[in-house]
């Protein structure tokens, strides 16, 4: 890992180099000697920048909880991270997460990993391929607005129309969507619409498809700005990779650590049915469904996300075999 620059107070930017030459930008906050690290993984078209309110809250002292160090990073092809040369799939993002975990966190401090959408899928890929990390380096997991598999299902199958016929239609629409998104002209058209004025009649339906009909605040406008920073074909390439994600039957390692799953009732990208499917795969996982929220849950409800991390911290001592994590007050009960 090599130092790049000081981006702003308390934010040290570093670069983790992958085997295929991608430079992954990593940001650290808080006391480097803190007994716990929280590693944050953002979603498709977002960046580490979107975790700002969560980081500010987590690194502030709170009675009954240990000091927390946070590590966030830009997924390859997002933010300050480069694309790299490897063929893009979800397993690759899991390997990127493993590299960040190895190079940006301490061996002697437990880590809570928290992921939104694509970030949650990267965590699943890591658990599927390197299960030994869970219950060792990784001591808690938060999965927010994410999928076990069939990522495009929420965009193509109405929640109130289940069944085999609808699923066949879903797969057909997914193949068409993949083909359109792989077309440079189509990708540029979608990119132009998604980054245009949110009041435009052609833009609004697309944003409802992405974020759901829930509350739309400045987080949606920030999402539009994030889209502008990513090339159209990069968005298309990541979309195609997301639709191949499938960790069904491969998440047994997550049963060894406290795992919490959050989903908004109005999420039409990673709908509640997906969250229930995910929770069923992980014995002991706690599922929380949040009324009135869409796919932008972590940005609309940052306090809830911070509370989820604190809940994981309370549960961690019971999952650590070493028992040497010093928590005090409510966190030790």
UniProtKB/TrEMBL annotation:
Descriptive protein name: Alpha/beta fold hydrolase
GO molecular function list: hydrolase activity; peroxidase activity
The entry's keywords: Hydrolase, Oxidoreductase, Peroxidase
Phylogenetic classification of the source organism: Bacteria, Bacillati, Actinomycetota, Actinomycetes, Kitasatosporales
Domain AB hydrolase-1, chain residue ranges per copy: 38-307
Gene3D superfamilies: alpha/beta hydrolase
Top-level taxon of origin: Bacteria
